[in-house]
Amino acid sequence: MNPSESTSARSNHRSNHRSNHRSNLRSNHHLAYFLLTLTALFWAGNWVVGRGIRGDVPPIALSFWRWVVVFVFLVPLAWPYLHSQRALLFKNWRILTLLGLFGGACHNALTYIGLTMTTATNGILLASSTPIMIVTLSWLFFSKRLRAIEWLGVLVSCTGVLVIISHGEWARLIELRPNAGDLWVLAALVFWALYTVLLVKRPVGLHPYASLIFMGVVGMLSLLPFYLWEIATGHYIHFGIAALTAIGYAGIFPALLGLIFWNKAVADIGANKAGLFMHLMPVFGIVLSIIFLGEQPALFHLAGIALILSGITLNTLYGPTKDSAP
Fold first, then answer.
1. 297 within a domain of the structure (yes/no)
2. What is the pTM of this model?
3. Is the alpha carbon torsion for 101, 253, 277, 323 positive or negative?
4. Confidence of residue 70 (pLDDT cuts 50, 70, 90)
């Protein structure tokens, strides 16, 4: 082979390598988008289940037993990784414990508590503000600088949240009388945004099954005293088909599959872009609430979601074109 042919071959090899790399990235992104769409559906169903089952399964009990379900299903699959990666787990126990507390205990316990006092529709619409929380926390913790248009998006979305909390009656805000359930839900969403932003600190190379089991154990142990208190105050599970189905759904779909899908997607496309898919939850959630709970969206719901989505759109269309984990 003469020098010119050798140079041409190297150039073609580099070109093919770049083309294959771009193709693999697109494939990974398409898979991430599909997984995020399924996750939004699973989580929308979780809100509907949490609201619909509130009379049969107390909120802390539902949070605790869903992790028991995850543990039972996942331990046989995760055991080889728990054994082979135990050194990596112990070395990174601090960040994994934080992820377990935020994503495994606080988020869903507060969500289920909120759903005893507010509707599934309200909760799901408030969840649409999570992308803005993620962007804001990325700025606070990782100095991700926001442009003026992005701050405008944050302001518009926050206005939408206030519309939902006030039920469109601004006097409620002046008199500080929002629905207590809405405030519990907002607190839950802050913990979820913290969990998502901190995923970037998860140890590289740790198998998702191992990290999820660790998070589930942290969730169960931290919820256990509150679960025992709940029982001591006379709040018991009324076992039946509805209760068992709800616990099974909450464990398998939003907790097990939802978290595996979410964590993978965040790793592939970044926290900020993944967070945007949570605005699919109102679409799925309102339909599910109408079908299963007989809820009907009110005008203030539509106004709030319009403002939230407008804020997200400002950040999506006019924010940075390249998204990465914070």
1. yes
2. 0.77
3. positive
4. very high
